[in-house]
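Re: that chain you flagged

S.,

Sorry for the slow reply, it's been a week of failed gels. I finally had a moment to sit down with the sequence you sent. For the record, here it is as I used it:
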Amino acid sequence: MLLKKIILVLVFISSNLFYSQKLELGSVTIDELNEVIHPKDSSAPAKIIFERGKTSFQYNKEDGFKLVTEVEVKIKIYKKEGYSWANKQVPFYVGGVTFDKVDFSKAITYNLVNGKIEKTKLKSDGEFVEKSNKLWSLKKITMPNVKEGSIIEYKYVISSPYLSTFPEWNFQNSIPTDYSEYTTQIPEYFTYNVHRKGFLIPKEVISKENKTLRIINKELELAKRNKKYVTTEEEKKYIELKTIYTLGNSPAIIEEDFVNNINNYVTSVQHELSSKQLSINEQESFATSWEDVVKSLYDDDNFGIQLNKNNYFESDITTVVSGLTTNEEKMTAIYKFVQSRMNWDSYTDYRCDKGVKKAYQEKTGNSAEINLILTAMFRYAGLDANPVLVSTRANGISIYPSRTAYNNVIAAVKLGDDVILLDATSKYAVPNVLPLRNLNWYGRLIRKDKTSDIINLMPINTSKRIINTLVQLSNEGTLSGNIKEQYFDYNALTFRDNYLGINTESYIDILEQKSMGVDIENYEVTNGNILNEPVIEKYSIKCNNCVDVIGDKIYFSPMLYFAQNKNPFTQDKRDYPIDFKYPNQDKYLISIVIPEGYSIESIPNTKVINMVDNLATFKYLITNTDKKIQLSVQKDINSSIFSSEYYEDLKLFFAEMIKIENQKIVIKKN
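Prediction finished late last night. Pasting the structure tokens below so you have them in one place:
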């Protein structure tokens, strides 16, 4: 219920700025160059003075329509931290028969030198192309002679033969944007779904204009022995829908802790092709509902057709499930087999690249190939298995019916009333513990009968971390002893992903840095590759700076260096949900033996904090005898995602918890 509540994004109205400066390239004033801070955000390292884009259609007889997006940008640099805004990269598609094309022009840096405006133009060595992956490349520029106070401007044009989507237009950025404008000009032959997101509302002005399309035909005519080309011109009249979106005075969108993907909340507009009709008899509709999406996927050569193949693995799976009687046993055995055999090439997609058979033979593939192989094997073994479309955290949240909204696929198996989610691209994942990139609100389970269901990807069960500590405090103020840490479920997966590939000495260095520089010895880890068991770390510590010795008294926190000392929630308010990825519990069981000749002068009180709606709890239970202090601390975050309406309560919860964790025990010499 909480997750559904979050997805209903609140929208706030923003007034558009009455812009007095000229919205054109080449118009730079001394006043603009002299401006040293943003008038409304003194912390801003730069600002976008204006950003104007237009997407329209161009036609030629040979290639038909193509999509052309023109963008003009003017940016003010205030500080060195804003220099990165003098670099621009534009992605373009190279994965088809024909490629997109990107051209930069009018790229100039302006500086004020001895009271005069100096212009430096971009040269060819500041422009280059870099391959991003097998489908996309980046056209990059690095603006010259950038300093504090500079103004930069440039124009780029993207030409694409692919009409399915427009480039997404963002009205907000991580720096303030004084003015943003985006125009679409769409011929009546095309219908696009418009998807909006974010907390601000751009102004929209819609109009229709009569247009004429001139088509030149050139045909060869033969007359006796003579031949000649005859050129004719054909005119087609059509209506163009023009929409102008404008938004002024947009504040910087701030990256905060525990945010899934900040781009989910940036005010933007997206266009996705719904249908096209180039003649009375030529009409084509595209996916506009989940039923349409599912049908098109099962008819897709790189998805549904691949999923139906099984002749390449039949004998292997017959051997794998031989002698197994329950569906759970078969599921586990097949999953481990695919995890062991297949190697992920680090590319996520819901469509196959080289095909499942070739990927299986080569033992490597993209996420679609590996998880469609997995799903097909489950089905072959008689399990109720289906693929689940996923938009990864880096890709953003998928809300609207669309194939382009997804970039990954995993597998689901129904066992009784439970649906088990599995992703075999990870060597360390287990059933219902997915790689973290997949934990992105909802996925779409799609069945063979072309029906589908929304499915919650966010974990419900709590992942635990349990720390047992037994230390001895010397009268010189040195703490020494042994620590045992246990990691369960997602905590175990995170540990395995991050640290199992690191050599022990390097990991100990990392651990010592995280632990206030304590000396760590005798380190060992068990169950690292036994995935159905918790990871266990054991090591001994020696700490010379964990306590304060003042006169005949020793002051120390019974939580030692495990105490959290900084509240991650510092903003006055928050518009975005708080994303903890998964429910989690940290439990500390700490025993401290005090030195001979000392007694306890003061000790913190036991304390329990409960957040509203039981979303989080904190228990601090402390007892002592003459020679030993025993502390039990348990922190529970009981939901993967918190609505922003809980932000103030969560901020106060963490503040109180941190205060308690850092309380001191005082012991004195007898």
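What I noticed first: Residues 212 and 237 are 4 Å apart (CA to CA).

Talk soon,
D.
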